[in-house]
Write a structure and sequence with these properties.
The protein is mainly alpha-helical. Helices cover 70% and strands 0% of the residues.
């Protein structure tokens, strides 16, 4: 988790989770947040699952990142599709419809970014490079040659 993209993907996931937590809480107490919730029970379950997925993103577990993306795409995808169809047909497009487009798009993009970052990071972890030491260790010019005296010293310790 040393890369900036890794930290940002985790941070954006936490920020979006907090955003959805506030929206769910406001819906539970009966206040209008401007962002409609499709199914309250499913939203609460998704909030708890997201904590597990964010741990997987932090630990760089590929399967967890894939499931994170698939669950978010399955939950926010139909909402996004319906909202876009309402906007394109011109019938009943309200501010809630545009808010649904924004929130659903952000949810899918955040989970996709986290998954792709883990996918790219697997290659980085398998073949790490360090510019401070690779010039010496991966260069044949700097290989140390053994001195002819190296193995002939027969010092005894008393």
């Amino acid at each position: 988790m040393k890369q900036l993209s890794s930290m940002l993907s985790f941070l954006f996931g936490i920020i979006f989770w907090g955003f959805r937590l506030v929206i769910t809480y406001m819906d539970a107490v009966g206040k209008d947040s401007g962002f409609p919730i499709q199914d309250f029970t499913m939203e609460v379950v998704l909030l708890f699952l997201t904590l597990v997925f964010l741990i997987c993103v932090f630990k760089r577990i590929l399967v967890g990142g894939l499931i994170y993306f698939m669950v978010y795409a399955a939950y926010y995808g139909p909402q996004l599709f319906e909202a876009i169809m309402q906007i394109s047909s011109g019938e009943g497009a309200s501010i809630y419809t545009f808010d649904t487009v924004i929130a659903s798009t952000l949810g899918i993009i955040v989970s996709l970014f986290a998954f792709l970052n883990i996918l790219v990071d697997k290659n980085r972890a398998a073949h790490p490079t360090d510019k401070k030491t690779d010039w010496f260790y991966k260069n044949k010019e700097y290989d140390r040659k053994l001195d002819e005296r190296a193995d002939k010293n027969n010092y005894r310790t008393l």
